[in-house]
Amino acid sequence: MSFASRLKSVARKATATIAAVATAATLATVGAGTASAQGHRDWLRPDATGHCEWDGVLFWVQRCDVWSPSNGRNITVQIQPAQRAGNAGLYLLDGARAPEAYNAWAVDARAMEKFVDNNITLVMPVGGAGTFYTDWAGPQGFFGGPTPKWETFLTQELPAYLQHHFGVSPTNNSIAGLSMGATAAMNLAANHPQQFRQALSYSGYLTTTLPGAFALMGLVVWDTAQLNVNNMYGSIMSPRRAELDPYTNMEGLRGKDVYVSAASGVWGPGEIGQPINGLLVGSALEASANASTRYWEPKARAIGLNVTSDYPLLGIHNWQQWDMQLAKTRGRILDVMNAW
């Protein structure tokens, strides 16, 4: 068993134990609409290992192992069912350092608390560090290893599971992500226009074929997960580089609600007292995302996309920024998805 598998196993046992103790109390205290929510939320769905487990983050989140034929393994997904059996879904994609034990949207932004009273199913895939949630052309490492097929999982295998067990429509979804996940969210929405009605990019890199971008992405995927970026595309000259660049891959976003944001990289009050190295890296990453997004936006508007942008004057590449953006866009998501 690999280290990641052992970590996942430990995490599953720990979260299940916590949830077993706390679920009853949570059902009574999570807020308005509790009684109507229980009918759709208080039972565990089937999954590849028998049935899902209650997740330690609570708020009716289930931890489900979904079999992925394309990846040859189970992929864990944290799922909060819609409050009143609605068929809308919100996919939340993690950043380049996506943990193997949980989706950080559930832990660092407490997304399930924000949508606990709403008629939308939260879909939070676990893992995928450095993969940009796409189908890789070759093994993820320099010396072999699995070939990730995240796009196939997220757009073919997972939707079928969600429809069958959670009632989520394959054609009634929103997708949002941070950093690496934001880049992926824009590409997935453009590549699968029938699946996603809305795409939201928080601090995303939306111009990945600009000079220097390939080298930067190579450093990112190596630093975060020791992956070989050449194997994502097939080669440095592969046409997939353009196919996976939101700047050259935006036609599929026509008719959708699109939201993009990135802060300036300037420290705000929330950054006071944090370690200087982390602040410097966070500033550089957010400033890069800001420049990339601002370069993307004029072209998107020129071809007629329905874009709303937000560029906060203060903020760096951190969870304070992304938590704020999810809270800010919560109403927008619910309006577009008709999921209040």
TrEMBL record:
Q: Where is the signal peptide?
A: 1-24
Tell me what gene encodes this.
fbpC
User: What is the organism of origin for this protein?
Assistant: Corynebacterium pseudopelargi
Write out the entry's keywords from A to Z.
Acyltransferase, Signal, Transferase
Q: Which domain of life is it from?
A: Bacteria
Asked whether the keyword Acyltransferase is assigned, the reply is yes
| Class in the EC hierarchy, top level | transferase
Question: GO MF annotations for this entry?
Answer: trehalose O-mycolyltransferase activity
Q: Which residues form a coiled coil?
A: none
Keyword presence, Acyltransferase: yes
Enzyme Commission number(s) of this protein: 2.3.1.122
> Mind telling me what this protein is named?
Diacylglycerol acyltransferase/mycolyltransferase Ag85C
